[in-house]
């Protein structure tokens, strides 16, 4: 079956770094743009980043641009989010998601279970 499994979340101090990973299976990974979406406590879903099918193009929310880097490995069927200079505003559950086609789409076809990132001093 389709699976997106996130890992790498945890507790980190402001200014610290975390690297999130997402392992995909059960679908044609290379046909899907991959995104990270987060949900802060008591808030709605917020799109964070997206990477194109071959990894040639990446998009970021303004709030994370310059601090986060998304990457993918189609051979390994993984997508990664390197998060640097973390702030308390980055505290959220981070979800890996897949959308058929490009990052310009509004719908997500598959979702992971999420991984908790807590930034606290």
Write the layout of secondary structure elements.
Layout (H helix, E strand, L loop, with lengths): L2 E5 L2 E3 L5 E8 L6 E8 L5 E7 L6 E3 L7 E6 L4 E6 L8 E9 L9 E2 L3 E5 L2
Parallel strand pairs: 2-11
Antiparallel strand pairs: 1-3, 3-8, 4-5, 4-9, 5-6, 7-8, 9-10, 9-11
Proportion of helical residues: under 10%
Strand content: over 45%
Class based on secondary structure composition and strand pairing: mainly beta
How far is it from the N-terminal to the C-terminal residue, by CA? 40 Å
Q: Calculate the mean pLDDT score and round it.
A: 97
Structure notes:
- This protein is an all-beta fold.
- The chain has strands spanning 3-7, 10-12, 18-25, 32-39, 45-51, 58-60, 68-73, 78-83, 92-100, 110-111, 115-119.
- Strands 2, 4, 5, 6, 9, 10 and 11 form a seven-stranded mixed beta sheet that branches. The protein has a four-stranded antiparallel beta sheet with strand order 1-3-8-7, with no helix packed on it.
- Strand 4 and strand 5 form a beta hairpin.
- It is globular.
- The mean pLDDT is 97.
